[in-house]
Structure formats: C-alpha cells, structure tokens
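Hi there, hope your week has been kind to you so far. Do you reckon you could talk me through the fold, stretch by stretch? I've dropped the whole record in just underneath, so have a look:
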Amino acid sequence: MCGIVGVISQQPVNQLLYDALLLLQHRGQDAAGIVTGSESKLYMHKARGMVRDVFRTRNMRALPGNYGIGQVRYPTAGNAESEEEAQPFYVNAPFGVVLAHNGNLINAVALKRELFDIDHRHINTESDTEVLINVLAHELERRTHGLPLSVADIFAAVRAVHLRLRGSYAVVALIAGHGLLAFRDPFGIRPLCYGTAADGEVMVASESVALEGTGYKFSRDIQPGEAIFVDLQGRLHSEQCAAAPQHNPCIFEYVYLARPDSVIDGISVYRARLRMGETLAQRVISVLPPSEIDVVIPIPESSRPSAMQLAHKLGRPYREGFVKNRYVGRTFIMPGQAVRKKSVRQKLNAIGQEFAGRNVLLVDDSIVRGTTSREIVQMAREAGARKVYLASAAPPVRYPNIYGIDMPTASELVAHNRSPEEIRQIIGADVLIYQDLDAMKRVIREINPGIAEFEASCFDGCYIAGTLPSSESRNRAEAQAPNTGRLSLQGAQEQGQPT
C-alpha cells in the first residue's frame, strides 16, 4: 500500500504535490518523494520519513517546474530501510522517465532476470518499482527507435507492459519534456483516479480525497487496464491497453486502507463501512443477545462508522472509550512486530469511566496479527470492564496478501489455520465475532452494482492476478538473479539536483 499522485499544470506544482501527499499520508509513512519537471529537466528529492519531515523549505525551493509526481511509501517488496528504494525511480533513457507505483509485482524476480539477460538493463535495488520502470522504459524505447515519441507509442508500450507484468500496480510516470502517464493493472486491484481544476489542469491520485483536498474536481476512476496520458499543454488522452480487463478492486481498501471521505471505484468508503456495521450487527445478534452488551466502543479510527451503525442496529449506547495519540503512526503499517506491539499503548489510552463495571463490545475494522487486539482487550480489562466482547468488521484474515498489503507470511496471521475459538483464546476476549465474507461483499457491491467481484485474497485465498512462486523456488530465483556491478548510490539524489 502506497499513495501516488501526478499533476500537469501551468503553475509551479511543488506545493500542490506536497499537499496531495499529506492527504495520502495514511497510505504510507516509511518514505516520501517528489519529482518535478521544467521543460525537459527533472528535479528529485526523496528520503525516508513522513512528508512533513522529508520536505523542508530548502527542498521545496529546489523542486521547480509545472509538472510532477509524488509518492508516500509503505514497503511490501525490497528493503524498508534503504534510502535507495524510496520512490520515485528514474532512468535516463529513453527521454528520461520517472515513475512511482502502488502495488506489488509477483513476477519481479523473473522480470529482473529478463531485463538483464534479454533487455540489457541493470537493476540496482531489490525494489519491484525499479523493475517496473525499466520494463516501461524498454517498451518505450522499442517503439520509438530514435523517432519522436507519439501518444500511440506510449499506449503501445503500456499494452506490452501489461503483457509482461503480473500482480497489482497503479502507476504514475513522467516522460521528460512530454507529459504525465498513468495506468492501472488489468484487474484494477489498487485504486487510481483523476480530476481537473477550473482551468483544465489534471491531477491523478490514489484516492479522490487528494483531488478534492487540493481544489480539483473528481472526474472518474481510471479503469482496469486503462492508461491516460496528459501532455504538457494539458490535453488528456486515454486508451484501454489490456486485452481482457476485469474489475476486481481490493476489498481491504474499504475495510481499512482508504480514508473514509474517499470514493473508490464508485463506492463511498464511509458508506461501505456503515454497511459493514449493519451486517456485523446481524452476526452479533446471532451469537450474543444485545441485552448483554452495555456499551459499544470503537477501536479508533477506521472502525468508527461500522461501530456506530452496529450500535444503532443493536439499540445499544455508542461511546468513545479510547483516545488516540495522533502523533503515533498507524500500527498496522509499522515494520517490525516489536515496534508495532510497543506502539499500541503509546497510541491509545482508555477512558476508564466508559469501561468500569460494564460489558463492553469493542469493534475493530479487522484483526490481522492479533497482537494489537490482545493488547487492547487487556487495556479494557485494566480499565475495569466486567466482560470484553470483540467484533471484527472484516472476516478472518487467513491468507497472505501479495498485492501490496503488509501480510506477507501466513505465520504472522492469527487466523491462519485457527478456529474462531482458538483466536478468541489467544486474544483474550470473552466472545469473538467476525464479519461474514459473502455478506460483506454483497452490501459493498450493492453500492456499485457494476463491480462483479472483489479482490479478497487475504480472506478467501483466491489470487486473481497470480501467485508468488513457492518459498523454495523464490529463494532459488533470487540467488540466481544477476547482481554483478551493483552500485551504492547513497547521496546520488541530492536535493534539487537535476536527475
């Protein structure tokens, strides 16, 4: 999960990109980067950290130009500690291309070998984004052969990219001196949309909130497999570049990842979470008489809409029982179990009078590793709760997600190969209630009947865009992948230096 943005304007775009990245900060807190362009010259600054920490005044002044892209990163492939793997990435041929993407390529190791052996391109990091940009650059180069670049060439290159890539990817890229390219994988797993300003300027972003929060009017979602290209004069071109696109957006966007004020693929995230609260209420009633619940308390913040609707359906009081420290990052996307566990009590503090002597129904958006849930249940008991019931607005997360969410191994998932009763004992709740997957899909689909199915692999184990090779074959492939001539480029992206 990352957040990406791209813009073409007639005015300087550095501040605009910065503001958009702040609105997408929830999608990644590990690193941030911006590239701007002025005519055919590109300027880059990227580093590990939050947007407000990566970009100081001196960095912003060194990012001139009226077109650009930006990204906030939360790594699911490569090295989370590496400055080199912060996005965007840059290649100087053809033309000069910079690219950022949200998602995860499941055939990155095989592609890396192809690029080295056949395309004669060198990959310097473990990032699948560097693989992606080199595939795109190679396909662009094949179609120009020294000739001027046309829009038809760009779309032909994207068609070839779709044929080579496997996995999920929403992409923004700049072609120096030409314009902004954006495209989405043929399944539309990761979100991407665009909007326009009053003067016709165009912005592309992961979520509609980034458009609306910067004064742009949402136009539409980019369709699965579709590419759009905006030239430096602001003219927008679009074309379907996939042979057989399917619309299967990631259902976890609506559960947790996206901001509630976003609309993704025609579905209001807030409304989806309300509907999840309704179906969860039905599950609660089937397990636990509402009379045994004194109060419904959400675990901030993604679960609030579901918890409010659940409380309304049950006819029980809704209360805020936890206060969140907004200066601590989202625990789900913090790398490292030790860091995640330590941060829970720094992040949340219980309001004792809302728990003392009561049977409390806690509502969370999902239960992934179980560590956070166990800590929160214990906090509720320490605050004086007589009984602690826990309801998850999402079904059990039983399978790894390989399309860009940090659920990489089954062993980390508390629900993998465990029954709800076994999970309840691990978490320490008196009762544990999960959402029903089919019911959740149905009520979200009712908001936009045009979506036939969702990507829900973490719940159902169905990997629509392909699966990773086995651990053994993946390790062997990585060992055989060429790494000769690998360079250390620390410090190569000096702030404000043209790439």
